[in-house]
């Protein structure tokens, strides 16, 4: 079984594929976005969907479910006023109104732990 990182505050585990995909997006620019989901039974955060480098924000928005929560990271490229190309990675906590209350609470309490694991900080 793949190694996982435990988020101590919520008892959730983050699959190593999440961290690996995030680093591929951040350093190698092979993904435009990554959508993560929590399996409530196994209490494991896994990769739900990965967007290729040619996809955009509209593709990310279309891949998010209308009735369930998700996390996503999106690599946004832009040009500054000085004509300098930059990139910024955004963390998105998706919690639509149609999702279950239990899922909203689970995703809200696990958000900080997932961010720490993705950024490589100790728990």
From TrEMBL:
Xref: SUPFAM superfamilies: Actin depolymerizing proteins
InterPro entries reported for this sequence: ADF-H, ADF-H/Gelsolin-like_dom_sf, ADF/Cofilin
Protein name per its UniProtKB record: ADF-H domain-containing protein
Domain of life: Eukaryota
Family to which this protein belongs: Belongs to the actin-binding proteins ADF family.
A single cellular component GO annotation: actin cytoskeleton
Residues of the ADF-H domain: 11-123
Keyword vocabulary terms for this entry: Actin-binding
SMART domains linked to this entry: ADF (SM00102)
GO MF assignments: actin binding
Pfam families: Cofilin_ADF
GO-annotated biological processes: actin filament depolymerization
């Amino acid at each position: 079984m793949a190694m996982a990182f435990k988020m101590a505050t919520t008892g959730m585990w983050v699959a190593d594929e999440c961290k690996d995909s995030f680093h591929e997006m951040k350093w190698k620019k092979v993904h435009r976005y990554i959508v993560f989901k929590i399996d409530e039974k196994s209490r494991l955060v896994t990769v739900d969907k990965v967007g290729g480098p040619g996809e955009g924000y509209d593709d990310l928005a279309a891949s998010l479910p209308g009735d369930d929560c998700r996390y996503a990271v999106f690599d946004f490229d832009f040009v500054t006023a000085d004509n300098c190309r930059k990139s910024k990675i955004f963390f998105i906590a998706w919690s639509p109104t149609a999702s279950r209350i239990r899922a909203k609470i689970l995703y809200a309490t696990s958000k900080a732990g997932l961010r720490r694991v993705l950024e490589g900080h100790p728990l």
